[in-house]
């Protein structure tokens, strides 16, 4: 079983409240718009990190992290990208792959809008953790915490912080 902390859109911001949750996870997944790499460096000092770069990220971030990361966690096929869309409105650059070879979990960031929803057409679970950074229009900063146990996704929780 793996305890996952999922975050996105830090925009160079990390604090002790976020890092407290990092310490309680087995792995941290970041869905892009990292900003300053001191954010991912702080996470990597504590826990294993998987991250993708987002549209605001520097060349340095793009050299360290991929645009897409597709991998297995336990027995779950996971795909993380920054600008991915959502069920019925996937980014045109990935739409064909989503429909022909869907992952079990599809994760993206970018919108700053927390959203977890099933795609009834493909059977995947779409997750967007919202934005945990202070930059953006969101009124509440959010992250997601959940567990993957074999083929099960369980104990999904929303973590909220004041902006």
UniProtKB/TrEMBL annotation:
<protein>
    <recommendedName>
        <fullName>Phosphoesterase</fullName>
        <ecNumber>3.1.4.-</ecNumber>
    </recommendedName>
</protein>
<dbReference type="Pfam" id="PF12850">
    <property type="entry name" value="Metallophos_2"/>
</dbReference>
<dbReference type="InterPro" id="IPR000979">
    <property type="entry name" value="Phosphodiesterase_MJ0936/Vps29"/>
</dbReference>
<comment type="similarity">
    <text>Belongs to the metallophosphoesterase superfamily. YfcE family.</text>
</comment>
<feature type="domain" description="Calcineurin-like phosphoesterase">
    <location>
        <begin position="3"/>
        <end position="149"/>
    </location>
</feature>
<dbReference type="InterPro" id="IPR024654">
    <property type="entry name" value="Calcineurin-like_PHP_lpxH"/>
</dbReference>
<dbReference type="InterPro" id="IPR029052">
    <property type="entry name" value="Metallo-depent_PP-like"/>
</dbReference>
<keyword id="KW-0479">Metal-binding</keyword>
């Amino acid at each position: 079983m793996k305890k996952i902390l999922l975050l996105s859109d830090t925009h160079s911001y990390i604090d002790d409240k976020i890092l407290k949750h990092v310490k309680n996870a087995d792995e941290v997944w970041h869905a892009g718009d990292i900003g300053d790499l001191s954010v991912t460096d702080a996470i990597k000092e504590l826990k294993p990190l998987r991250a993708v770069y987002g549209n605001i990220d520097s060349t340095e971030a793009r050299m360290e992290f991929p645009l897409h990361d597709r991998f297995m966690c336990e027995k779950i096929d996971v795909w993380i990208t920054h600008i991915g869309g959502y069920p019925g409105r996937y980014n045109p650059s990935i739409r064909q792959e989503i429909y022909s070879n869907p992952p079990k979990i599809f994760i993206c960031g970018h919108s700053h809008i927390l959203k977890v929803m099933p795609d009834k057409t493909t059977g995947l679970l779409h997750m967007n953790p919202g934005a945990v950074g202070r930059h953006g229009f969101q009124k509440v900063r959010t992250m997601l915490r959940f567990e993957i146990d074999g083929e099960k996704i369980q104990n999904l929780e929303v973590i909220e912080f004041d902006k």
